[in-house]
Structure formats: structure tokens, C-alpha cells
Amino acid sequence: MPQTNSIYVAGEWRHGAATVENRNPSDLSDLIGEYGQASAADLDDALAAARAAQPIWARAGVQKRHDVLMAIGTELMARAEEIGRLLSREEGKPLAEGKGEVYRAGQFFTYYAAEALRLHGDLAESVRPGIEIDVRREPVGVVAIVSPWNFPVATPAWKIAPALAYGNAVVWKPANLTPASAVALTEIIARQDIPKGLFNLVPGPGAAVGQRLVESPVVDAISFTGSVPVGRQIAASAISHMPKLQMEMGSKNPFLVMDDADLDLAVAHAAGAAFGGTGQKCTAASRLIVHTKVHDAFVDKLTKAAKAFVVGHALEDGTQIGPVVSAGQLAQNLDYISVGQAEGAELLCGGERLERKTEGYYMAPAVFAGTRNEMRINREEMFAPITCVMKAGSYDEALAIANDSEFGLTAGIMTRSLARASHFRANMRAGTVMVNLPTAGTDYHVPFGGRGASSYGPREQGRYAAEFYTTVKTAYVAAGAPE
Ligand code: NDP
User: Fold this and answer.
1) Which of 253, 266, 334, 390 has the most C-beta neighbours closer than 10 Å?
2) Cα(230) to centroid of ligand 1, in Å?
3) Active-site residue among 90, 97, 101, 282?
């Protein structure tokens, strides 16, 4: 199979000396393509081109930036079906989710198109007479974006859109597992009337291309989403040249089900958030903390719901859960099933590899009951269709368990009590709290992020993104006396 154009540097597509195979996790006989890997020279060219293009883009003005972002967003939305199909084919999420993700990516671009026009500054009186002060936001410069495979279009979109809206240049290292999505998004951006080198795609192994990118002194800011160990490694590597850092990392999201909850709704929300996207979401509900009074009824209903999910080929009608993304991820998931059992958790359903018409990485959604918060399956991010139930005798106990984690991304509570809901909202240590809603499922126009080991640096999304993608300049002007 001929190599797919997959390296985009200084306004030109390039081939790589090395390639990676991109195979469909729903059907391993389906080879999507051979994708080139950027070399150190490609990366260095991209960085130099980005550095040169950034001031040209910053001077192009906000109307231009608005128009370019609007065009990208509009095209993504119009082509959500086609690009969503490609995304689902290579990542494995059901087609409806793939299409939804691409549409959402379009919304990030149209939202930031408008935000480009809304970048206001401040005026201040000086404490010294005759001096005026203004405070403006300027582009931060060259932004390195390192993204994961689980939302291969939406995650880069919510980073690239504000980066470009606020006048920056971008060098993007996508996840090597999902190169087709990266190429599809880049093709749309590359067709816009933007300076050559403003936007660059440099695929390749994280440990090589990614590492060289984050170590480069050309980079002014790094936005990363992925695992905690890699996030920490990037921060440690980058610190010698001190770029701005924005990191969204792991999670272990708690979901509290109180004795006054609507139990059927609680089960639907828990199951949807635990198993949607094959559990490969940083917002997945992975620790279900259930009041003793409703525990047995909840677990019974949850197990039935988990068994009822249709696991199958991502592009087949009726599929609710697609395959796991890769052989490595599947092996890790199955290992966590053994870990849970060895720790004494009770596996109520699922947890085994499944066979389907086509050979793929299918896994039955798993529910562990009788778990304790100190177990590894409740401490470590599994990124798997596995959820763990814990009992709590009271709301206070449930909240204490929920807060006993190094992570703090999202958290949810199911209750009819306004007092409990308000207390939870105030006292849950997480960046995002949900009341009578699943832990997964967020909007595109408000900030997203976490606390503790889940996040580091300024928030992503909404107008809060300006904090990261701009730098503040304070100007003092002494006008002098009129002539
Ligand atoms: P990683 O954190 O390993 O990778 C995320 C991105 O970082 C990828 O583009 C990767 O490249 C890149 N990368 C890896 N090493 C470096 C490095 N040294 N310097 C710069 N960039 C680097 O996540 P994975 O995709 O491998 O998933 C592994 C685990 O991470 C999952 O099981 C899950 O627990 C967690 N994860 C969490 C996410 C979240 O949103 N919370 C998202 C994705 C993963 P490449 O993979 O192409 O080599």
C-alpha cells in the first residue's frame, strides 16, 4: 500500500522514511493505511517555520482569524458523517459517537472564531499623574500540542482552535494510533489561506518526536492530554526552557448514588459513563459509590444493563460499545481484571475477550462489586470498560471515599436532596461536578479540567483558554503636554 501523506511541515505534505500501519481495531484485516513518521529534521523544519509564520498571523488581524476558524469549523460540521466514519474505523468508537465527535470539533472552531473577536483588554488609571495604562493579551508564540487517541479529532480541535484564534502558530504531535483523523483535520486546516508554517503536523512515536518537540527551546507553550506518567515526563523535560504548560491527565472519577436517587436514572447514567467509548474516556465513571440502602438493587440493575450492551464492530448498526483501541490496551484491561480478582473484588459480569464476525479487540463490559477504595482497581486509571462498585453507609462516608484519590477531574452525585447536592458541589475536590448527570458529557463553551494529578496549568475550553494561549502585556504611556 502506498504511503499516505501524513507529515505537514511549512505548508507542504511530506513522506516519512519510516511508516506505521493503521489497522481497524474492529477488523484487523482492514488496513486503513501506512502513515509516515516525522524525522528529527521534519520536526526542526516545522518549528522554524512556525516561529517565522507566527508574527505574520498575529498581524493578520482578528477578522482574518475569525474567517479562517469559521471555515474550518463549518467544513468539519458539514463533513461530520464522512470524517466520523474514518475516526470510528481507526479508533473503534461507534459511528454515532465518531460523527458526534467531529461535529463537536467543528463547534470548537466556530466558537473560537467568535472568541477571536472578543479579546478585550483593560484600561487603568496610573497612580502617577499623566500616565495611562492599558493591559492587553498577546499571542504566546509557538504552541506544541500533544494529543491522545481516545478523542483524536475533538481534543486537538479544542487546543488548535484557541491557539490559532489568539494568534499563535501550532506544531501538533498526534497519537500514533489514530493518524487518519489527524490527517483529515490537517487537510482542512491546510486548505485555508494561512501563512506557510503556521500549522504543522508531525506524527511519530511520543518517545522520539514528542520528546524532541517538548524539549525544543523554540516552543513557548505545551498543551498535552494523556497519561499522568507521560505528562510528568513532559513537564520535567520542558522545565529547562520554561514554556507555559497545560496538562490534562488521568482520572478516577467517582459517581455517588444516594438512597434518595432515581435508581433507574442512576443506573443509566453510571452505565453510560462507565462503558461509553469502551470506557476510554478521562471522564468515565470508574468508582461507583453507592448508599448501602440501595446498593443491592443498584448493582443488580447495573449488571443487567452491562450485560445488555451490544458490543460489536464500530461501523455496524446497533453497536453500542466498539472494540478496545489496541492490542496493548486490551492486554492491560484483561490484566486489570486479574488484578481486581486477586485483590478480592467480585466480578459480577464481563471482563473477557469476545469474538465477533471480524477479528478485533472486543471486550465484555465488566462490573466489580465488593471493592475497597485502596484496591489498585480503584486507584489507577484503567481506561477500560471496567467499573468498580463500593458501598457507603452515609453521604458523608461516600464523599470521603470520593475525595480519597490523587485525581480530581469529574465527579457526579445522584440525589433528590438539594442540601446534599449543594454540599457535594462545594466539597467535592474536582474540576467538574455533575448533579443528577453522568460524569461524562461536557459542553464546549465552558472550562474543562481537573485538580490534583488530573490537571496542571490553566484551564482548557471556553474563554478561560485565553489564559493559556495568550500572554499579558501592561503598557504605561505618558502622553506629555499638548503642543
Ligand atoms: P500517553 O500519555 O502515553 O500518550 C499521549 C500522547 O503523548 C501521545 O501522542 C503519545 O505519543 C505522546 N507521548 C508519549 N510519550 C511522550 C514523550 N515522552 N514526550 C512527548 N509526547 C509523548 O497515552 P496513551 O495514548 O499511550 O494511553 C496510555 C494510557 O494513558 C491510557 O491507558 C490511559 O490510562 C491514559 N490516557 C489518558 C487520557 C486522558 O484523557 N485522561 C487520554 C489518553 C490516555 P504516541 O502514543 O503516539 O507514542
Assistant:
1) 253
2) 6
3) 282
Active-site residue flag, 248: yes
In CATH, the number for domain 3-249+454-475 is: 3.40.605.10
* 91 belongs to the catalytic site: no
Which grid cell sits at 295?
A: 446498593
Tell how many helices (H) and how many strands (E) occur in the chain. 15, 25
**Ligand 1 centroid distance, CA of 179 (Å):** 14
Distance from residue 148's CA to the centre of ligand 1 (Å): 5
Cβ of 251 closer than 6 Å to ligand 1, yes or no, is yes
Nearest CA to ligand 1 atom 12: 206
Give, in degrees to the nearest 5, the angle at Cα 95 between 91 and 98.
Answer: 60
Domain with CATH 3.40.605.10 in the chain: 3-249+454-475
Asked if residue 282 has its Cβ within 6 Å of ligand 1, the reply is yes
Cβ–ligand 1 contact at 331 (below 6 Å): no
- Main-chain phi, psi angles of 340, to 5 degrees: -60, -45
- d(CA 105, CA 114) in angstroms, rounded, equals 15
Written in H, E and C, the secondary structure of 3-31 is EECCEEECCEEECCCEEEEEEECCEEEEE
Q: How many CB atoms lie within 10 A of CB 126?
A: 12
**In the chain, ranges of CATH 3.40.309.10 domains:** 253-435
Ligand 1 atom nearest the C-alpha of 204 is: 47
* The architecture CATH gives domain 253-435: 3-Layer(aba) Sandwich (3.40)
Cell of 377: 482497581
Say if ligand 1 is within 6 A of residue 175 CB. yes
Q: Is the pTM of this model over 0.85?
A: yes
User: Ligand 1: distance of its center to the CA of 218 in Å?
Assistant: 22
Going by alpha carbons, the residue nearest to atom 43 of ligand 1 is: 226
Strands of the sheet with 470-478, listed across from one edge:
122-125, 131-139, 470-478
311 CB near ligand 1 (under 6 Å): no
What does each of the 483 residues of the chain score in pLDDT, given as a tens digit? Answer: 888 889 999 999 999 989 999 999 999 999 999 999 999 999 999 999 999 999 999 999 999 999 999 999 999 999 999 999 999 999 999 999 999 999 999 999 999 999 999 999 999 999 999 999 999 999 999 999 999 999 999 999 999 999 999 999 999 999 999 999 999 999 999 999 999 999 999 999 999 999 999 999 999 999 999 999 999 999 999 999 999 999 999 999 999 999 999 999 999 999 999 999 999 999 999 999 999 999 999 999 999 999 999 999 999 999 999 999 999 999 999 999 999 999 999 999 999 999 999 999 999 999 999 999 999 999 999 999 999 999 999 999 999 999 999 999 999 999 999 999 999 999 999 999 999 999 999 999 999 999 999 999 999 999 999 999 999 999 999 977 777
